[in-house]
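Thread: quick sanity check before group meeting

JM: Hey all, I'm pulling together slides for Thursday and realized we never actually wrote out the predicted structure for the chain we discussed last week. Dropping the sequence here so it's in one place. If anyone has concerns about the input, flag it before I start.
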Amino acid sequence: MSGYTEEYLKQKLIEKLQATHVEVIDESDGCGGKFSTVIVSPQFQGKAILQRHRLVNAALAEELKTIHAFSQKTYTPEQWAAEGH
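JM (edit): ok, ran it. Output follows.
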């Protein structure tokens, strides 16, 4: 059990990545060990998927030590808008 909440992770990603949109879903029935995320940030502009994921992993380095499953979808604001959001 990591003890992290959806709201905690969301706020940390907004702060660290200047994210304009963040969705965090706890898929672990409340124990905080498995999360899926959607993150939209201008910091992803011009970066490959692996580079984006490294930015996210660096932002949550301490938290990911106890979270056992973490999936992420990363978008630039332009990509997010093109998806119809």
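AS: nice. Residues 14 and 45 are 16 Å apart (CA to CA). The helical segments are 6-17, 49-59, 77-82.
JM: adding both to the slides.
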